[in-house]
Amino acid sequence: MREAARNRLLKSTILYVMIMLTTVTWERATTWHADWLRAVPGAKWPFLCMYTDLLKLEEELDEFLRDFGFQAVDLNIAGRGPGRVFRLFVDSIDPVPVTIDDCTALSPQVRLFLEMKGVYNDKSSLEVSSGGLDRVLKRDRDFERFLGYEVRVAHLSGPKKETVTGELSSFTDDFIVVTIVEGGEPRAHKIQRSALDRVNLVPKLEL
Q1: Neighbours of 91 (CB within 10 A)
Q2: Model pTM score
Q3: Which domains are present in the chain?
Q4: pLDDT, tens digit, 9 for 90 and up, residues 19-31
Q5: Residues in a beta bridge with 185
Q6: Does position 207 have pLDDT exceeding 80, yes or no?
Q7: Which pLDDT value is given to residue 69?
Q8: By C-alpha distance, which of 1, 24, 12, 8 is closest to 122?
């Protein structure tokens, strides 16, 4: 399956190059859009018009990556205006570690996807890397895969933010359960998913 995904990725890379050689360059499109911005008072960059919801963009990107045998772990966007920095963290659908070569091969595909969505231009930059040992958990598939693993959970508790560390014991659509050992006794800590700020794996260091 992984080999088939690599073949699809190679074919898509070739297609990407052909598209870039045979269509109007993004630079010209950006110049046109900049002229339009100056001509229309109050106009915003397409990113703000089309994707005020970052989660929506990430979910669409996740669906796109699955055709190549990968899935999105997390997407961060830094900066404002046209010079945005897109940081994408990916994982393999198969239980195979993501390599530097995988990230290098995926980059032009992701760049093309973002360009087609109108959120990426010649002033933007893209970084693609693996989820890492402390990868983010945010979807049902993540919680299912890492049940029994130690996690660090930052969440809202009333007006303040708290962080707990323990074993991911279970989850539902509404909450996750983290088991914490206090005084030698395990205690289940139920956290509403709507209150979650960030959930990360705690890296296991093997000596």
Answers
A1: 22
A2: 0.74
A3: 2-130 (3.30.300.70), 140-201 (2.30.30.100)
A4: 444 343 434 444 3
A5: 182
A6: no
A7: 95
A8: 24
Mean pLDDT of the chain: 81
- Asked whether 151 and 133 are in contact (CB, 8 A), the reply is no
Sign of CA dihedral 53, 58, 61, 62: negative
Q: Token pair of 9, please?
A: 């990725």
Contact 22, 14 (CB under 8 A): no
| Dist. CA 138–CA 136, nearest whole Å | 6
For the CA atoms of 5, 88, 13, 65, the dihedral, rounded to the nearest 10 degrees, stands at: 40
Q: Which two tokens stand for residue 33?
A: 């859009």
Q: Which two tokens stand for residue 178?
A: 């983290």
Q: Strand 125-130 relative to strand 150-157: parallel, antiparallel, unpaired?
A: unpaired
Please enumerate in sequence order all residues whose Cβ is within 8 A of that of 138, keeping only pairs 6 or more positions apart, or say none: 74, 199
User: What percentage of the chain reaches a pLDDT higher than 70?
Assistant: 74
Question: Nearest Cα to 126, choosing from 106, 107, 112?
Answer: 107
Q: Does residue 178 register a pLDDT over 80? A: yes
Question: Does residue 65 carry a pLDDT above 80?
Answer: yes
Q: Between β-strands 85-92 and 70-78, what pairing exists: parallel, antiparallel or unpaired?
A: antiparallel
